[in-house]
Amino acid sequence: MVYAAAAMSAIVGIGSLAVDLGRLQTAKSQLQTVTDAAARYAAYGMQSSSAGTSAAYANAAAVFADNQVEGKSVEFVATRDVELGIWDEQLRKFTPTSLSGGANAVRLRSKASLNQSAGALSFLSMLGRSVEVNSESVVTMNGKSATTFAGAKGNPWLAGMPAGSVSRNNVTNTNDWDYAGSGPNQSSSPGMIDLSAAKLDAGKTIMFDQVSGGANNGASSTVFNPDGNLGWIVNLGGWTGTNVSSRGQPVNGISNVVAPINSMMGVFLSDSRPDSSSAPDPLDFSSAESRNFISLSPKLKQVFFVGDGRRANGEAQRVVIPTGATRLYIANMDAWEWSNNIGGYTVAINNTQGLKTVK
């Protein structure tokens, strides 16, 4: 009986240890999966600017916040665990560096401590042991990018239209109309990016980074950042306080939109003139929640909010290029009369084509 009891204890101990080892392997697999995802999302937010570093931190943190390992949160400190560096494919070696050092990769490290209180281990916990599981992932960045300047006089409803075209909506005063290329109230063309030349294909996801500058809808020394004047929501044709009562009609085949005045906007076009087909439904960005999107899939000729390209937590926002798009126009939001606006925005767009997990 004594031998049997001792043998049974040993068998139970061995069985518990086997279960613990199995859970450890599961935990390692889970942690590696989460770390790989966080590293790719960090690289996704990383751009060739200091702002990109903060986006990488925020993106990685968002992944870890949404995932656990064996029911336990992952230990992660962005400023410590996310590194920029240079990846040498031949040597399979990552060397930390700064943005100015020509970084082409992101390395991310994470760890999780497992014990009985975490519900992960039993036998090892009885021995007073906790086990730390570590993970590392390296992702190289070879995304495509393109840059443009969008002057505040650029009217999105004149995008892709020939000289002499008119933008008018719910306005009886002809002084408030804008003309493309010529006319009494000439507006400058919105900033255009040739998607084909930049090798930014339909269906790809892009981000807006290195957004700088500001605009105002009148001759004032005050300019608003790319998110615009959040206290003044407008559409093409009018406004009512902070709530737009009438969304008006589309112009030149391009949809109307509701958004803060002086905010940075975008619209995708094909090679065809936009007024050669009907406009899609308007989008509404009047609320902070609507502007805090993670991902957006606008249609061709559907004006959408760009702002500073980031969510409230610093996470990079994603926009999917619609099928048939060959051009992206960046412009300033106003209700009418762009011709007297001041300022403008410089913006770079980037995609993740070429992201590769190498370690």
Protein topology:
Layout: H1 2-45, H2 50-65, E1 68-69, E2 72-73, H3 78-81, E3 82-88, E4 93-96, E5 105-114, H4 123-126, E6 131-140, E7 145-151, E8 166-167, E9 178-180, E10 186-187, E11 191-194, E12 205-216, E13 229-234, E14 257-261, E15 264-269, E16 283-284, H5 288-291, E17 295-296, E18 304-305, E19 318-320, E20 327-332, E21 342-351, E22 356-357
Parallel strand pairs: 9-10, 14-16, 17-19
Antiparallel strand pairs: 1-2, 3-4, 3-5, 5-6, 6-22, 7-21, 8-9, 11-20, 12-19, 12-21, 13-14, 15-18, 15-20
Helix pairs in contact: 1-2
Outline:
It is built from five helices and 22 strands. The protein is of the alpha+beta class.
Structural commentary:
The protein is of the alpha+beta class and 359 residues long. It has two domains: 2-81 and 109-134, no CATH class; 145-357, no CATH class. Helices cover 20% and strands 30% of the residues. The protein has five helices and 22 strands. It has a five-stranded antiparallel sheet with strand order 4-3-5-6-22. A five-stranded mixed sheet has the order 7-21-12-19-17, with no helix packed on it. Strand 1 and strand 2 form a beta hairpin. The chain is elongated.
